[in-house]
Amino acid sequence: MATLGPSIDQLIQALRCLPGVGPKSAQRMTFHLLERDRSGGEHLAEMLSKALANVKHCQRCRILSEEDICSRCNDSSRREDQLCIVEMPSDVIAIEQATHYQGQYFVLTGHLSPLDGIGPEALGIPDLIARFDQKIVTEVILATNPTVEGQATAHYISEIARSRDIHVTRLAHGIPLGGELEYVDSGTLSHAFAGREKY
Amino acid sequence: MATLGPSIDQLIQALRCLPGVGPKSAQRMTFHLLERDRSGGEHLAEMLSKALANVKHCQRCRILSEEDICSRCNDSSRREDQLCIVEMPSDVIAIEQATHYQGQYFVLTGHLSPLDGIGPEALGIPDLIARFDQKIVTEVILATNPTVEGQATAHYISEIARSRDIHVTRLAHGIPLGGELEYVDSGTLSHAFAGREKY
Ligand SMILES: [Zn+2]
Ligand SMILES: [Zn+2]
User: Fold this and answer.
1) What residue spans define the domains of chain A?
2) What pLDDT is attached to residue B193?
3) What is the ipTM of this complex?
4) I want to staple A120 with a disulfide (CB 3.0 to 4.6 A). Which of A45, A116, A125, B113 is the partner?
């Protein structure tokens, strides 16, 4: 087995924690960094450590944030009565870029997946219930992914919201089924958001 | 412009130094690391810093190595009279995995590219000439990429070697033109290596 030494092998292996990076691309990345872009590599190591140290989750909406309460949750110009529920931080970015939504968000950081041991607790549902019970939110907008798991999660949350007399909507049809929200083009996403339906 | 704060934005930006990583994949990698694999991210930052600190170039063959002289150059069981010249460290790995070659290597770390200011000095040609002048090498095997630049580089080196009465061969036809050596399947590469031709 041809090898270039432990530090190189370990870096190739470590790069494989990145999504979409197999053995061949990890090797290519390693040679690129060591052979052609050492300053880029040093900068990457530094920014990675910095982000891991500084970035936590907003205590209110659970999005990735460097502050205890994120800038959106702290923005008093945003409506308090609308709450949009998404799976991932990237979905918030996508909706903010595509729509004029000016309400609140709640980031589940995933979807219900009993086989993987991901239940309501892991998605912050108890916090969400506490939020409903403050009786400020009057509309919940379900924007989970249009996958089987995303829809099951939306259904679960809709039952809880409806039992508290909260109006529940979901994004309008138009989003391709089986896709992931962050890959939907912004025209479609904007349209689906504006035309959201009662759930 | 929707953003999640400076540390996250900087990490997304820093990841783009990796080959093949555009804005969308950099964002996806960032969210994956911060949301789902922090220990993988910490390990990556550590291995990256370690490799950048420990890995230099072999003083003899210029391959990436943690030692001043790499394990292959230090291996006294390998033939001293054959010298295989490649563009990149990954080409050495590919040849070692595909063939039974037991001679020496010299890694140019690129090819002649006058427009980018990459001349003979940057490719270590003076060291290569010094090596030729030791009169130990009797066969130079040119294994640069079958691209225009790789072939021009091979031609340049062949002239130098021939003026010193060194036998010059190149890998046999069979390697697809315009491709990169490291992506050639190992059967083709092995065949081309065994059937190398006089240059
Ligand atoms: Zn927040
Ligand atoms: Zn060496």
Assistant:
1) 6-54, 79-170
2) 74
3) 0.81
4) A125
